[in-house]
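> forwarded from #structure-qc
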């Protein structure tokens, strides 16, 4: 059961969050059981994403038929695609496939963005909350729940108003952009509290974000993916104040650093005292971790823990080169047999 599993792993994860010494890194691995039951499926994409009973039943079957290794825990990510917050704020859903819902910008001015709100009559917001309520009702001592993708303030502005429009406004109308970002940040924090109020009904210990890392308190992977298009100076001016406010809204802050275009903003992030950990996501074509040892060591040297995604064969050389303190690896290609071998090597102190 969930509580007994948490009791066996929470000390090691607490040490990771607090950037304390560890003999071995945290390793998160999960794999479908070799003899797993059929997982519910449908070719009706709207049902796949929005049928509350179907979504919950599918996730519970996945949890039941999954083995969890290392610091992995069973959890239900309220997955409404990377554009979830745009949909919550009024964009129309485009069901692309079983991995992706997309949303297109639909507002024509910053004034229209300033009018958006969290509306319970919104189909997507209502559906997300109903999924969360249904999952929370059966989550006690069974699974954790990760909030939907709340995005970043600049990301959300670009999603509602268009990336090109947003970039032009940053230069031509910076004061209005700052006001608009402040409005979106306030909605972000409100949505964060609202979803956590629902999740908390399960009375489980701690929280989890979509990255799958248990924390002793509230957490979420904050991001600003659009920031790769702006300078470090603009990042500090337009993004950093809101990132810091969002981090203050939670107890265990975590930043999703996505792609080499985001590296120029790293030093600004490392200056944030409340930031606990950074997820380094190199991006397409740059995934091989041995390219990034120096960057990983640099983040660790600043007292921030690091989370990475890795193939099984990358883990040993990664540890050899960057050490174990502050390191958490989510293994993305392990079978049950390989996961058990990893546990023999690294799941002990």
């Amino acid at each position: 059961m969930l509580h007994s599993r948490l009791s066996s792993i929470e000390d090691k994860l607490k040490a990771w969050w607090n950037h304390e010494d560890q003999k071995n890194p945290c390793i998160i691995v999960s794999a479908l059981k070799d003899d797993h039951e059929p997982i519910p499926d449908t070719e009706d994409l709207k049902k796949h994403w929005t049928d509350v009973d179907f979504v919950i039943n599918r996730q519970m079957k996945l949890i039941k038929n999954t083995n969890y290794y290392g610091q992995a825990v069973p959890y239900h990510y309220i997955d409404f695609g990377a554009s979830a917050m745009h949909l919550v704020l009024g964009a129309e859903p485009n069901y692309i496939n079983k991995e992706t819902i997309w949303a297109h910008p639909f507002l024509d001015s910053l004034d229209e963005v300033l009018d958006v709100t969290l509306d319970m009559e919104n189909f997507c917001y209502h559906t997300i909350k109903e999924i969360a309520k249904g999952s929370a009702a059966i989550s006690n001592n069974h699974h954790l729940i990760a909030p939907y993708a709340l995005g970043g303030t600049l990301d959300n502005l670009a999603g509602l108003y268009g990336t090109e429009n947003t970039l032009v406004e940053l230069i031509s109308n910076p004061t209005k952009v700052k006001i608009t970002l402040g409005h979106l940040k306030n909605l972000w924090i409100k949505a964060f509290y609202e979803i956590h109020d629902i999740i908390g009904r399960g009375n489980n210990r701690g929280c989890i974000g979509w990255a799958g890392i248990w924390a002793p308190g509230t957490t979420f992977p904050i991001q600003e993916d659009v920031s790769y298009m702006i300078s470090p100076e603009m990042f500090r001016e337009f993004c950093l104040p809101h990132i810091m406010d969002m981090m203050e809204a939670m107890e265990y802050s975590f930043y999703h650093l996505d792609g080499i275009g985001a590296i120029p903003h790293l030093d600004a992030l490392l200056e944030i005292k409340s930031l606990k950990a950074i997820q380094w996501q190199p991006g397409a074509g740059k995934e091989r971790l041995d390219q990034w040892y120096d960057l990983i060591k640099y983040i660790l040297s600043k007292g921030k823990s690091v989370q990475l995604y890795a193939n099984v064969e990358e883990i040993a050389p990664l540890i050899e080169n960057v050490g174990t303190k502050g390191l958490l690896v989510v293994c993305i290609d392990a079978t049950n047999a390989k996961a058990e071998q990893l546990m023999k090597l690294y799941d002990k102190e």
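QC bot note: The chain has a mean pLDDT of 96. The longest helix spans residues 174-199.
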